[in-house]
Specification:
By secondary structure, this protein is α/β, with parallel strands linked by helices. It has one domain (28-214): Dna Topoisomerase Vi A Subunit, Chain: A, domain 2 (3-Layer(aba) Sandwich), CATH 3.40.1360.10. It is built from eight helices and nine strands. The chain has helices at residues 3-8, 37-45, 50-59, 125-137, 156-164, 179-194, 196-201, 218-238; strands at 62-64, 71-76, 82-88, 95-97, 108-109, 118-122, 146-149, 170-173, 204-207. It has a five-stranded mixed sheet with strand order 5-7-6-8-9. Helix 4 links the parallel strand 6 (118-122) and strand 7 (146-149).
């Protein structure tokens, strides 16, 4: 008891107990819609190839939520267990990670060969799908590379993917062509160089943002490419 308390016969009340933090919610995938019509219309309006959409649905990495008809992009670990999911509205700009998601296991598209040495890294699932759609349009084989969404610009999903796929030796950083994307690519390369195992294994890290004249990100680049091809086709028919 302090001297003031002794003189006044007053004892200060004990400090209030701090509320205990709530335990984190367990991860659970949203319920799926039986008819993913809104998702199909939305993704095709963004230029994503229908065959690629179908492959993702069959793989269980993409579906439409029953509530609100959002696109649900699912990330799985190497055992196939869903560990992450993010929502993208089919109307408006809504986007959100599902509560309890582990962002180390983000949405990805795997190459046909498990020992594929190439990985393309994008900021969002739609940009990853756009990259996979663009490759055949340029004469390449889409499944000759892995594709990974970071869900932003942080390196944790990329580092997890690289450690889970030990044959990857070449990384193409395909982030947005803006300040955040350019800075993000520098951080990603630094994260690889600072990792003892990856710095020895990954021999090529290539900064590959979309050309500025074709848009800020790879989905804008894809849409511009499709529009230019349509205009050229229309001109050819008009001759």
């Amino acid at each position: 008891m302090s001297a003031v308390e002794a003189l006044c016969g007053y004892r200060a009340p004990p400090p209030p107990e701090r509320p205990k933090p709530k335990p984190p919610k367990s991860f659970a995938l949203p319920e799926a819609s039986r008819f993913p019509s809104a998702m199909l219309v939305y993704l095709q309006s963004r230029g994503i190839h229908p065959d690629l959409i179908r492959e993702c649905i069959q793989a269980g990495s993409l579906y439409e939520s029953r509530r609100y008809q959002n696109c649900v992009f699912v990330g799985r670990d190497t055992t196939g267990c869903a560990r992450f999911a993010c929502l993208r509205g089919t109307r408006g700009n809504f986007r959100m990670d599902v509560e309890g998601s582990d962002k180390r296991f983000n949405f990805s598209l795997l190459a046909a060969d498990p020992k594929c040495p190439r990985l393309a890294v994008a900021e969002s699932p739609i940009d990853a799908l756009s990259l996979a759609t663009l490759v055949p349009l340029s004469g390449g084989q889409r499944r000759d590379s892995h594709y990974l969404s970071l869900g932003g610009t942080a390196p944790r999903a990329m580092l997890q993917f690289l450690h889970d796929h030990p044959h990857v030796t070449q990384v193409s950083l395909c982030l947005d062509n803006d300040k955040a994307g350019i800075t993000g690519m520098e951080r990603l390369e630094q994260a690889i160089r600072e990792d003892t195992e990856l710095s020895r294994r990954v021999t090529l890290v290539y900064h590959n943002p979309p050309p500025a004249e074709r848009g800020k990100d790879y989905n804008e680049f894809l849409c511009a490419h499709i529009q230019a091809a349509r205009e050229k086709q229309h001109q050819m028919r008009g001759r």
